[in-house]
Amino acid sequence: MAWVYLVIAGFFEMGWAIGLKYTDGFTRVVPTTLTVLAMIVSVVLLGVALRDLPVGTGYAVWTGIGTVGTAALGMYLFGDPVTVARLASIGLIVAGIVGLKVLS
Question: Which residue in 22, 46, 52, 63 has a CA-CA distance of 20 to 30 Å to 35?
Answer without folding.
Answer: 52
